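Protein modeling request. Please complete all fields; requests missing the sequence field cannot be processed.
Requester role: graduate student
Desired output: 3D structure, token encoding
Chains: 1
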Amino acid sequence: MKILIAEDDRAHQEINKILMEDWEFEFDMISSGRKAFDLAKANEGEYDLCLMDY
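Delivered output (54 residues):
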């Protein structure tokens, strides 16, 4: 499973990174929802799940 994570808070980025690595998920992390949307669109079909807040 490949996950795209949009997170702007540095502490939450670190927590997510630790969890994703511990659970052995492939992931990309980006700092904004707009950038996440652009990345997902540019890599259509690559991600199984996108996690973001608002």
